[in-house]
Structure formats: C-alpha cells, structure tokens
C-alpha cells in the first residue's frame, strides 16, 4: 500500500535530482551514454512537472474545482435577474434624514392612483408636492407598523390631500381608516399589494409584497444586514426570527427588499443576500435570541412622543402648523 509522503514538493524534487545525477555518474563510469548536466536538469524538471501535473489533476484540482463550482453556483443564484418593473408601474424611494426613514411612493401610471408607504410627518409637504407634480392621486397612506422613532405623516397627508385613506395592521393597536389582516390586499389602479403579517419588532408589523414586480417592503422586521430591535413595543425575538425565516425568506430569492430604515447608506437588498449575509438572521434561533437580548441599546429618543401620536394620527389631522 502506498503511503502519502511527508516531504514537501521542493524536497522531493531535490532528492529526485540527486538520485538522477548519482545514477548518471554510475552510468558514466560504466561507459554508457549520458546527457550533459544541463540537459539532465531540463529532463528532470520536465519529468517532475509532468508527474506533478498528473497528480494535481487527479486529486487536488478535483477538490478545488468542486469548491469553486459550488461557490460560483451560489453567486449566480444570489445574482439571479431581478424582475423588471412593468411599464405601467411607478416606484420612487424617498428619505428622511433625521430619522433615517425610507418612504416609498408606488403608482399605476395609467390610472394615476398612488400609495405611499411609511410617510414621515416632517416630509408630508414634500411628498404631497411630489404627488401633485406627477399628476397622481394618493389613494392610500400605509404604515408597516406603529413607529417609535418618528411620527407618521398619514394624518397630515389626509389634510393635504383630501380623500387619502390611512392604513395599518389591525394588530398594531393604532387608529386608521382601514386596518389590514394577514394576506389582505389593497389595490391601486391594476396593481395589487399584499399585506403579510411579520410580527416580532412589534405585534403589528407587516411586510407589504407586490408579487408582479418582485418587491417587498419589510418595515423594521428585516433591515439590510440587520433587523429591528425587540426590546420594546411587544417585541419578541423568537417571533421576529419566525417571521423572517417563514415569511420573508420563503419569497423568491431574487425579490428585492426595501426596509423602513437604513443607517449606513444602503438602499435595498434581496432575499438571497439576506439569507446568506445577514449576520443576525443566519444564526440559529437560540443564538439569535441571545444576541438580541444582549444588544444593550439606548432608550429610543422619540418613543414617548411618537407612539402616542402614531396611535391616533392615522385617523386625525395634524394641526396646520406642524
């Protein structure tokens, strides 16, 4: 039985050359034909190289190729082509610098009906102006949950754009013109948004999915390479973990995900990216719960003002001086 040599490649070659030269010297003493020294070295080098190539090809390369192919396959899958927006679908991502909140304006270009996801009070005038400039009619102003870091702009938008209907989860405990339950849909023009219950950050968190366009709005449930905190507002780490793994991560992997916040300048992600790279949600559930219970985050600065206001202002107007 052959045993694997403990010598390195350089040592093997050195011993091979020494042995070859000794054999050559013995042959010279017996009068046999011998190649000049330089040609001997070249021959040895070619022989060793050929043997090494054969060995590498039959063993090391096989393992390396398998690893590279698996990695490449993962990369290709992660970068599967995103769905292209249909020609009659409008999308605009908006940002509030103070709270690092993203709002999303979606519309049917044909009917001009629009919806606005997670509006911010301080940006309501900006949003209303944009909607007017684009010739849209705001049908719904939706919140993914009852926010604790800013006051929603839904109440003020109802004043600025009469006819706007405020929308939030029935489980949120907040007031609104329309409340949603799991898998209920809202329609704007011919487009449909499905509300998917994803509690954990709060009881009333929802992820809004537009299947035809391959997009989902995850609120604070799933952030880019992170997630919402679970230490206030009925937060529950195990519930959030289930929501992400059983609801969001089961969407098609090429779906684009848009969170309610980002603090590092990222704008979007995908299901495939977060399943592979999210440092919190790639852990097992017990490790995730332990991590979330030891974040030691400061008390939210706006929570005492934002939560009481957000319970009400989806239904009632904000004063004009707001």
TrEMBL record:
Keywords: Metal-binding. SUPFAM superfamilies: Metallo-hydrolase/oxidoreductase. Residues 100-261 form the Metallo-beta-lactamase domain. One of its GO terms (biological process) is glutathione metabolic process. Transmembrane segments: none annotated. InterPro entries: Metallo-B-lactamas, Mito_Persulfide_Diox, POD-like_MBL-fold, RibonucZ/Hydroxyglut_hydro. It comes from the Eukaryota. One of its GO terms (molecular function) is metal ion binding. GO terms for cellular component: mitochondrion. The keyword Metal-binding applies. This is Lactamase_B domain-containing protein. It comes from Anopheles stephensi.
């Amino acid at each position: 039985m052959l045993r694997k040599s403990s010598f390195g490649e350089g040592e093997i070659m050195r011993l091979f050359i020494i042995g070859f030269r000794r054999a050559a010297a013995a042959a010279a003493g017996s009068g046999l034909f011998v190649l000049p020294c330089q040609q001997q070295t070249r021959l040895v080098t070619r022989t060793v190289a050929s043997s090494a190539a054969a060995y590498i090809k039959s063993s090391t390369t096989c393992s390396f190729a398998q690893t590279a192919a698996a990695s490449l396959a993962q990369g290709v899958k992660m970068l599967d082509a995103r769905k292209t927006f249909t020609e009659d679908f409008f999308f605009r991502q908006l940002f509030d610098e103070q709270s690092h909140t993203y709002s999303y304006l979606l519309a049917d270009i044909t009917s001009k009906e629009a919806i606005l996801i997670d509006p911010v009070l301080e940006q309501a005038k900006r949003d209303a102006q944009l909607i007017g400039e684009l010739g849209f009619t705001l049908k719904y102003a939706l919140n993914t949950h009852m926010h604790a870091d800013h006051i929603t702009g839904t109440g003020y938008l109802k004043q600025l754009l009469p006819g706007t209907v405020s929308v939030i989860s029935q489980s949120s405990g907040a007031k609104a013109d329309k409340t949603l339950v799991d898998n209920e849909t809202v329609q704007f023009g011919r487009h449909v948004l499905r509300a998917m219950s994803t509690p954990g950050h709060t009881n009333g968190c929802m992820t809004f999915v537009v299947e035809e366009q391959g997009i989902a709005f995850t609120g604070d449930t799933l952030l880019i390479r992170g997630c919402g905190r679970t230490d206030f507002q009925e937060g529950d780490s195990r519930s959030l973990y289930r929501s992400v793994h059983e609801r969001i991560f089961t969407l098609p992997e090429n779906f684009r995900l848009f969170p309610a916040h980002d603090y590092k300048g990222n704008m979007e992600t995908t299901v495939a990216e977060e399943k592979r790279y999210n440092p919190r949600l790639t852990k097992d559930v017990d490790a995730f719960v332990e991590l979330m219970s030891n974040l030691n985050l400061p008390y939210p600065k706006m929570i005492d003002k934002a939560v009481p206001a957000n319970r009400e202002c989806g239904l009632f107007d904000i004063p004009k001086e707001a």
